[in-house]
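hey so i finally got around to running the thing on that chain from the lab meeting. sorry it took forever, my laptop kept dying and i had to restart like 3 times. anyway pasting the input first so we r on the same page abt which one it is
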Amino acid sequence: MAVTFSDIHTESGLKSLDEYLAGKSYISGDQISKDDIKVYGAVLENPGDAFTNASKWYDSVSSQLASR
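ok and heres what got predicted. didnt touch it at all, straight out
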């Protein structure tokens, strides 16, 4: 499933990502996928405390990519 987020560099885009990730660990499915890697590459840095779901997701993806 291809998931896209527009304007991920803006507060509005990060809010959309954060809302999408509510109750989810990953963008598509129960494990890291190409969708996570694609969106991770577009997010310039950890979104921070204002976007708790996106921040947890970012840390998780970052950790998994670092261990590969």
